[in-house]
Amino acid sequence: MPMYAISRGDGFVLETLTIPAAEKPLYERRLVEVTAVVNGLTHYYDGANVLPRPPSPVTWTDASESNGGALLDVPAGAIVRIDGEGVVSLEGGREDLEFPMPGTYRVTVEAFPYLDFETSVTIDL
Asked: How far apart are CA 112 and CA 119, in angstroms?
């Protein structure tokens, strides 16, 4: 029986399922035949194919004279999270971050279809 990936409208792969070929028309364009199990953490649907999610273009640079640093090459519309709390990067590019207290912070950038960027930032005051 054929295996298919089903996706949301934005290309996020929800799951892989096996259904009879006769049932495929019920799902319209949201199904694409695959040869292996895929999921939204590792793959996306570009409208024609299921592809591996590309690595994030984001990089982190420490600011030696402040309590923070900068995220570079942030895609426009990305969600930047610090310890789970998020803000949207409307313009993208460079995002300067400052941290008010000493400690270790988890910084995540979500910009589908890219893989999430994650880093830990330690601030010593």
From this structure: 17
Quote the pTM value.
Answer: 0.82
**pLDDT means per 10 residues in the chain (125 residues)?**
87 88 74 88 91 96 80 94 87 89 94 96 84
Q: Which residues of 42-76 are buried (b: 16+ CB within 10 A; e: fewer)?
A: ebbbeeeebeebeebebebeeeeeeeebbbeebbe
* Dist. CA 117–CA 125, nearest whole Å: 25
**DSSP output for 85-122:** EEEEESS-EEEEEE-SSSEEEEEEEE-TTSPPEEEEEE
Comparing CA positions, the residue from 12, 30, 39 lying closest to residue 113 is 12
97 neighbors 74 (Cβ within 8 angstroms): no
Q: Would you call the peptide bond into 102 cis, given omega within 30 degrees of 0 as the criterion? A: no
